[in-house]
Amino acid sequence: KLRARKQQQQQQQQQQQQQKADQEHDRMAELYRQHVLKEQPTIQIQGLGGKKKPAVAEVLHKETL
User: Fold this and answer.
1) Does 8 have pLDDT greater than 80?
2) Within a 13 Å sphere around the CA of 62, how many CA atoms are in the beta-carbon half?
3) For a Cys-Cys bond, which of 15, 39, 50, 61 suits 33, CB 3.0-4.6 Å?
4) DSSP code string of 20-65
5) Distance of alpha carbon 44 from alpha carbon 17, whole angstroms
6) What is the domain range of residue 15?
7) Has residue 45 been placed in a domain?
8) Positive or negative: CA dihedral 27, 30, 32, 35
9) Phi, psi of 19 (to 5 degrees)
10) CA dihedral of residues 36, 38, 44, 45 (deg, nearest 10)
């Protein structure tokens, strides 16, 4: 049990370190593009969202005789 728990904790730490390294790599790549290649920084655009659903209209029925 203890070995399994320790191994699981080590795996979680490795995953966290890998994520941090990936984020740092992405940040450095962005800085490289901006300063060395003289590209304009990309602008983050908020999602457009989906098409909004119309409100449900009440159905009007004609009276039948």
Assistant:
1) yes
2) 2
3) 39
4) HHHHHHHHHHHHHHHHTS-PPPPPP------PPPPPPPPPP-----
5) 26
6) 1-40
7) no
8) negative
9) -65, -45
10) -160
List the structure tokens of 4. 């399994």
Q: How far is CA 46 from CA 3, 21, 23, 34, 39, in A?
A: 45, 26, 21, 22, 21
**HSE-CB of 28 using CA atoms within 13 angstroms:** 6
Domain count for the chain: 1
Query: Looking at the domain assignment, is residue 52 inside a domain?
Result: no
Q: What is the per-residue pLDDT for 29?
A: 93
Residue 51's pLDDT band (cuts 50, 70, 90): low
Residue 12 has pLDDT above 90, yes or no: yes
